[in-house]
Amino acid sequence: MKRLWFVFAVAAVLVVWTVPAFAQWGEETTGNNLRVRVGAFFPTESASRDEANTWFNVGLDYVLKRDVVIGETYSADLGASVDYYGSGDVYNIPVLVNYWGKLSGGFGYVGGIGVGFSKRLNGDTKTGFAYTIGLSYDLNVGQEGGTQLFIDVRFNGLTGTDNEHNGFVVGLGARF
Q1: Of the CATH numbers 2.40.160.20, 2.30.30.100, 2.60.120.10, 3.40.50.2300, which one belongs to the domain with range 2-175?
Q2: Distance, CA of 124 to CA of 138 (rounded, Å)
Q3: 8: helix, coil or strand?
Q4: Is the pLDDT of residue 1 over 80?
């Protein structure tokens, strides 16, 4: 358990450390930059489902650059995230750089790549290439400012772990 907190602390420091590097982009990151997600992870591998059918998931996103691409019905943000999903002593902590595309009507998508710190079913710890791809829907379509809620559905993956940390995440999030 101490190792879990150490890995989570290192991942959080890495995310926070990258924020000043993007400070040169100025005021383009104002408003609703922090995103918090809570939900359930559903592993795709049967060995992982033997651990538990549903694992706990929590994530923290931070927008580093708002509106990297802008169109009439499309815009996109660039940012970083730290997640945790696990069950018992088995877990993964992916630290990712993400691209969030926003479409009209409250729909959006996310794609992210980075590194994942995991503890496997056999008790070994492993670091590997982590990725996510998903869809989202804003529940507060058309509202500006304040807390904005969204639903997020993603596929998370981690290489080098026999797919035991691959699966789907369904969650509720809030932008602050």
Answers
A1: 2.40.160.20
A2: 38
A3: helix
A4: no
